[in-house]
Design brief:
Chain lengths: 364, 554
């Protein structure tokens, strides 16, 4: 059974359980939102998605109003526009105007709406509440509640996606604020530092602490890939700037995980550029001077070119194979490496060396 | 894997994470610390419990985080899983909750299995496992009356000398309840590493070629000899837990290790050290200098996941693209290029059969390697980078280029035809607590670190939030020994017959009295200094989950 509605003069067949917003988006009609996110249950608290419904006494929140038979909706009528502008003005009146240095610049839904609706910070602002910047010691997540618009996506993401209930709302009116646990630190409130709240935050209130200052959305290239840690196989976007990974963001189309990631997937990437990385082939000195292998300490490492390192390796492995038989060579392949690399290691062991002594850490 | 292969003919997670989380009426999680080890799947289970009202039974000696969401926590003594499962199946049979039709139509060996299970009375099971009889009944009732139920496990089941029998018994349970081949059911071993499934699938095992084609089957041998143009060995090779100790036996002379740190991840570190000191030649292909690199003769700089393109296969058999985002540092190279170059050098001057289509090592990309892989691996026959790049979602078996993949295994029929019930009897752990070593130590990982810690100890935030090894110890035991969480008496020394480590105590009721839990992320206090190389006789997996230890304030 479908419901016949009209949006901006366009006749649409909607499903009876759909909201105005869902029906509109399904048919490519844009209604702006801030607190709404398709993954989270709608709360209808930001009042950006207000639309005109014929016959209703007030504007209706499109995200929280179900369609009915014969409903007629105007999404961009004069009343809606005025309302949205006023709502945005009130938000901006209580929001720092530091887009120049804000981490979220270019990836901020409030900024986008202010741009679209041509709303400036009002002259009568910004007299609102003030909070300490970087107010939580969590090593991954930078908290600046001055930029919070109280949309509560963080509260819902933590409750509905992560099911950890770290975030809540305290106080009323002007003093209303987001708190961790009973107004303590995130880690005290049993935060797992998954960063789901950061992923869903529409402004710069919650951002990545470890990516801070390294680059902002318009400057990065996103490369979709699969996480290197556990076997769940989450997909994520590596954020790359100037040839370096500077952060990880969720990819909503990820088949297994959607927007969700864990602390290691989202915040465990900085080993990639760690100064300890091996950057040149290394061999022990004795191998270059044709000495026998020393007992005990193996001596200094010497940086060599690839040809030298691979010649020595090939010679030594061939020597073991030819002297003691193929089964004297053990091959450990890697559950951290690609399928293709594992195939090649298997071919190397079996075809090149001639042994089935190949295994990896699955047992460990 | 060996266990599931024996029961069903195929050893892998049978179902997909989304059908489990979305459709199971009940979950049975045994020996998996899901929310810490597979965190995103852990949150899927939490959502199912909270928003869908799915029942959750957690069987684990520790009070892991998932217990907060559990309908029931069965806190069995370490090493008593078989007894626990037999007891639960005993009660299920007593109440007629088994799926008679499924058993009759799709399984064999039921009567003999039933005879064994009926010997495990609830009273006797309760005495061995220390799970109260009442809880056994409650758990069996949930299992018997909520269909489908999905079973999940991880190393808590497999890292025992009875690892394979443990798995066989979980397969028994799911056949008994008729939970195979349906959404929301299945036997679901959660694989640890990002690509441990792929490494197993593509021949990284001593007994099988890619796609689990046995090296001992002449037909498979001939197929790969024809493809690669070289004579191949039909003798099952040695496992990691044999290859390294075989150095001291004079059998292993050279080692080529790709991206692994046996000094951290293998049992009985002191013994591993002795082996590594004795090896003639060790080449290590790595991202970082590791504990093992002290013993290496050559180190080859490889590439991280961010620096190469190819595929990983996740725990639910899903093959997914990995994309290069940045160049490897300095002269480091993608690992496939290193392997290829080394292979060409070693083959120099050797004649391979000229008709063999895949004898050579000329690959312009990993996409080429996948074409060769698919040609020789029926499970991956339809996998290409091109399909994956188009956005196709593929879970093996992918039988052909137009085959859509297989989200659920064993639908309608098991891989081997009929499922086999195996009667399983209790096998006590290799090392039980005694007067000198009165505690049981179990080992594993924590959410903030990964395996030997080579990567996560170099991730600033992760190190900040979990900066040193912590030994979990129960408050009662701690109080008895004068160990506190602050002040001077907060460090403990844990010793086994093989070694001793000293670390910070974490006094917590996550562990029951008489048990401690340690990890192997930090070289200065790695649990593997204490563990033993007691292996499951078939799977050759070490018994990491039961080590007898002595604990004292340090």
């Amino acid at each position: 059974m479908t419901v016949n509605i009209t949006i901006n003069g366009q006749k649409i067949q909607a499903q009876p359980e759909q909201t105005i917003l869902e029906a509109a988006r399904e048919h490519g009609i844009n209604i702006p939102t801030l607190c709404y996110h398709k993954d989270l249950s709608p709360t209808g608290n930001c009042r950006i998605c207000m639309v005109d419904v014929k016959g209703a006494r007030f504007l209706q929140a499109a995200c929280a109003t179900q369609v009915w038979e014969g409903m007629e909706i105007e999404t961009h009528g004069e009343k809606s526009i005025v309302s949205r502008k006023m709502t945005l003005e009130m938000m901006l009146a209580n929001h720092p105007v530091d887009c120049l240095t804000c981490e979220a610049n270019g990836d901020c839904e409030l900024q986008d709406l202010a741009y679209e609706y041509r709303v400036e910070v009002p002259e009568w602002g910004t007299k609102g509440t003030h909070y300490p910047v970087d107010s939580d010691p969590n090593p991954f997540i930078f908290v600046d509640f001055n930029k919070c618009i109280l949309c509560r996506r963080c509260v819902q993401a933590c409750a509905e996606i992560q099911v950890r209930d770290v975030w809540g709302v305290a106080q009323r009116g002007f003093d209303e604020t987001i708190v961790a646990g009973a107004d303590t630190t995130m880690l005290e409130a049993r935060c797992e530092s998954c960063g789901q709240c950061v992923a869903y935050c529409p402004t710069g209130a919650l951002t990545s602490k470890i990516s801070r200052g390294l680059g902002r959305a318009p400057q990065v290239t996103k490369v979709t890939t699969t996480c290197t840690y556990c076997g769940v196989g989450c997909q994520l976007d590596l954020n790359v700037k100037d040839g370096k990974v500077i952060g990880v963001t969720s990819n909503p189309d990820a088949p297994v995980n959607g927007m969700a990631l864990c602390v290691k997937g989202r915040y465990g990437w900085d080993f990639i550029h760690h100064p300890d990385r091996l950057t040149k082939p290394l061999v022990r000195q004795y191998l270059l001077s044709d000495q026998p292998k020393p007992k005990g300490k193996l001596g200094e490492w010497v940086e060599v070119d690839w040809d030298t390192a691979l010649d020595i390796t090939a010679r030594k492995l061939s020597h073991a194979r030819d002297t003691f038989g193929p089964d004297s060579v053990g091959i450990l392949t890697s559950a951290k490496c690609l399928n293709e690399e594992n195939y090649l290691m298997n071919k190397f062991a079996r075809q090149v060396v001639g042994t089935n002594n190949i295994d990896h850490c699955a047992r460990l | 894997m060996a266990g599931l292969a024996a029961s069903f003919g195929s050893g892998a997670m049978s179902n997909s994470m989304d059908d489990i989380a979305g459709q199971a009426q009940a979950f049975f999680v045994i020996g998996s610390n899901t929310t810490e080890q597979h965190p995103v799947f852990g949150t899927m289970l939490r959502r199912a419990v909270r928003f869908r009202g799915a029942k959750l039974i957690v069987a684990d000696p520790r009070r892991i985080d998932l217990v907060d969401f559990a309908t029931l926590h069965l806190q069995q003594k370490p090493g008593t899983d078989i007894v626990l499962l037999n007891g639960l199946m005993h009660i299920i049979l007593q109440n007629g909750w088994e799926d008679e039709r499924f058993i009759a139509e799709r399984c064999e060996g039921f009567e003999e299995f039933k005879e064994t299970v009926m010997r495990y009375t609830p009273q006797m099971v309760s005495e061995t496992t220390s799970v109260p009889v009442e809880k056994l009944h409650q758990a069996a009732e949930i299992m018997g009356t909520h269909k489908p139920m999905a079973v999940m496990w991880a190393m808590g089941i497999t890292q025992h000398i009875s690892g394979v029998p443990n798995v066989l018994n979980l397969a028994n349970l799911q056949m008994l309840l008729g939970n195979m081949g349906i959404p929301g059911g299945g036997v679901n071993p959660l694989r640890g590493q990002n690509n441990v499934q792929g490494a197993c699938d593509l021949g990284g095992l001593p007994n099988v070629y890619p796609g689990y084609q046995k090296v001992t089957v002449a037909e498979h041998n001939r197929k790969f000899e024809a493809a690669w143009g070289a004579p191949l060995s039909d003798k099952i090779g040695a496992t990691v837990t044999e290859i390294i100790p075989d150095i001291l036996e004079g059998k292993t002379h050279a080692l080529y290790i790709l991206g692994e740190d046996p000094l951290m991840s293998d049992p009985d570190t002191a013994h591993i050290r002795k082996c590594m000191e004795a090896v003639d030649f060790l080449v290590l292909q790595e991202l970082f200098p590791s504990e093992t690199s002290h013993y290496a003769d050559v180190m080859l700089p490889g590439a991280s996941f961010a620096e190469k393109t190819g595929t990983f296969t996740n725990t639910e058999r899903r093959i997914q693209m990995v994309h290069k985002a940045v160049d490897p540092p300095g002269e480091a190279l993608p690992d496939w290029k290193i392997i290829t170059r080394l292979a060409k050098r070693m083959l120099h001057g050797r004649t391979l059969s000229p008709d063999a289509p895949y004898a050579g090592w000329e690959y312009s990309s990993t996409a080429d390697v996948m074409i060769e892989t698919a040609a020789l691996t029926p499970l991956y026959a339809g996998v290409t980078h091109e399909r994956l790049e188009r956005g196709e979602r593929l879970q093996w078996p992918v039988k052909a280029l137009d085959h859509p993949g297989t989200p659920i295994l064993h639908v309608g029929q098991f891989s081997r035809g009929k499922g086999i019930f195996h009667p399983i009897d209790h096998i006590p752990p290799a090392e039980e607590p005694d007067e000198d070593y009165p505690f049981v130590m179990s080992t594993g990982r924590v959410i903030y670190h990964w395996h030997g810690g080579q990567m996560t100890r170099r991730a600033q935030g992760l190190l900040e939030v979990y900066s040193e090894a912590l030994i979990e110890i129960n408050p009662d035991d701690a109080a008895r020994m004068g160990i506190t969480t602050n002040g001077s008496a907060q460090r403990v020394r844990v010793s086994s017959r093989r070694g001793s480590i000293e670390a910070q105590a974490w006094v917590t009721d996550r562990v029951p009295p008489g048990m401690v839990y340690a990890n192997f992320h930090f070289p200065d206090a790695s649990a593997n200094e204490l563990t033993q190389a007691a292996l499951d006789p078939v799977a050759k997996i070490p018994e990491y989950k039961v080590t007898a230890v002595h604990v004292e304030p340090a």
